Amino acid sequence: AVPGAAPADSRSRTVRAVYAAASPSVVSVRVRSGGSAASGTGFLIDSDGTIVTNAHVVSGAQEAQVRLDDGGRDVDADVIGTDASSDLAVIRVDRDDADGIRPLALADSERVQVGDLAVAIGYPLGLDRTATAGIVSGVGRQIEAPNGFSIDKVIQTDAPINPGNSGGPLLDSAGRVIGVNSQIATAGGGGSVGIGFAVPANTVREVVPRLRQGQSIRRAFLGVSTAEVPFGPGAAVAQVVPSGPGDAAGLREGDVIRRVGGRDVRAPEDVGAAVEALKPGERVDVEVERGGARDTLGVTLGTRPERTP
Hints:
Elements: H1 5-22, E1 26-33, E2 36-44, E3 50-53, H2 55-58, E4 63-67, E5 74-83, E6 88-92, E7 117-122, E8 130-144, E9 150-157, E10 169-171, E11 177-184, E12 196-200, H3 201-212, E13 220-221, E14 224-228, E15 235-240, H4 245-249, E16 256-260, E17 263-264, H5 268-276, E18 283-290, E19 293-300, E20 302-303
Antiparallel strand pairs: 1-2, 1-4, 2-3, 3-6, 4-5, 5-6, 7-8, 7-10, 8-9, 9-12, 10-11, 11-12, 13-20, 14-15, 15-16, 16-17, 16-18, 18-19
């Protein structure tokens, strides 16, 4: 036997099993807006015809269609809701059209570890359904959402992801969704260079039920952008939105945020995570270091605007 052949065969069997179980739930999404067309991927999450995809795939769509597994049948879909801050969207087909298609289950993305198997299923570059496999290359990443804000706790994978994969599932070895494929890093040519990003399943679990019910997603807003501190923990205030909540409370550029609402801040993403856990209108204590001295400012959080100011 060739040394190392058995693990490779085992991995191949796992990928085949994941694809066989999950692929019927993965659909091609095509939309029209004005005179332009766009396409991506989505997947069913319940037996009522609810499909998750990316917000940037269906943004501004005037009409949408999905291609189901059963013989490549095209059916109309309604855009139920979008959330640009998480790049997630919900569309829906008639329940009868989705009859017999098993919805995909969501994993707990907090339990995902670097080195775990990752399988992406989608419709890249206009091709029919395609599977690619790799590993989870990183967790806790941060990417830019379509509206300019940050998406936190993102999963990085080296499973090849290309245009058209957007909105498709990133799956674990049990065929559960660990993330929704959203973006790739490129070297200027537009293709995959082995760095793809997926919105974590726990964000899907939080956002999608609200979109499914027609709710708008309101998030708390501190009104500052932050950057890494060159030495030591904390988050440096890089910009303060004029007349925003932070500005009104006295936050200044150059302040180093150490704590938000009793939570330690070791890096910029900790500020976002602390604010994300709160609601608009809540008052929160923000501990800052300024000129070598510590100060605590009370900030009444605002509502995040549709786009970054």
